[in-house]
Amino acid sequence: MNVPKQGFKVSCRDTSPECLKRSLQEVYPEFIHGIPELGITSLDPFAVDSLVLKLPGELTLEFKDAYAKGLQKCNVDYIRLIEEYNLDIQFNCNLLTKGKYRSTGRLFMFPIDGEGLSTIISRNLKIRWNIQFSSITKDEGQKYIQIKNLKTSHSFEGRVTYNMTNLFKGNADMSKVALDFMNENWYMVANELGSPLINYCINLIISNLNQLLNKVPLNNLIST
């Protein structure tokens, strides 16, 4: 079985927040870049071929032929070992999502029926992780890390900017009014529209993380 190269190891001689933060910041970009030999796909950029979101107000929003980038440049705000098998982590990210969209339904007071191009920029997005884990011994006698419980949350700490064309088909004036409203009320809109997109991104990271932990023994992940 292939394992990550030596440089991928999290190297800490103690469990201090400073050492853990430094080590995670070193290996995180490579993890996001992808490790093909382990089946870990690249997530910067990652493609969104077709994603249909069912949102409040009977709003249906579909993204297609889209992509998102910026994950590889996320900064580790902190990582803390709360208990022996419990990590608390926060990242700060700037993400760009771009592609085609189609929408029908109601966004707040606007009856939306649009189809066009979409660019969404999220600044200072905070993504928090709480990971409870244990070690297991597999048939070959090697120890592996296993996630027992994982909770994530996020918050939009910086402005989210929307550029979406043709929000009202054939009505440029109403499209501009709706877009201006979205940008003036970006925080409220981000929590309606943005959270499903962020959760989609988080699920991709979780899938890659589980792939990594399932394939790579503990002694090939952590060096002391």
Summarize the structure.
This protein is an alpha+beta fold and 224 residues long. 27% of the residues lie in helices and 46% in strands.
Low-confidence stretches: 1-7
Helical coverage, percent range: 25-40%
Q: Please report the number of helical segments.
A: 3
Radius of gyration: 20 Å
Structural class, from helix and strand content? Answer: alpha+beta
Mean residue pLDDT = 87
How many strands in all?
9
Q: What can be said about the biggest beta sheet?
A: 7 strands, antiparallel
Give a description of the structure.
By secondary structure, the protein is of the alpha+beta class. It has helices at 17-33, 172-184, 186-215; strands at residues 10-11, 46-55, 59-69, 75-83, 86-107, 110-137, 143-156, 160-164, 222-223. The strands form 2 sheets. Strands 2, 3, 4, 5, 6, 7 and 8 form a 7-stranded antiparallel β-sheet that branches. A two-stranded parallel sheet has the order 1-9. The longest helix is centred in the C-terminal third of the chain and has 30 residues, at 186-215. The protein is elongated and about 65 Å long.
What distinguishing features does this structure have?
disordered N terminus, elongated, 224 residues, 7-stranded antiparallel beta sheet, single chain, alpha+beta, two-stranded parallel ribbon
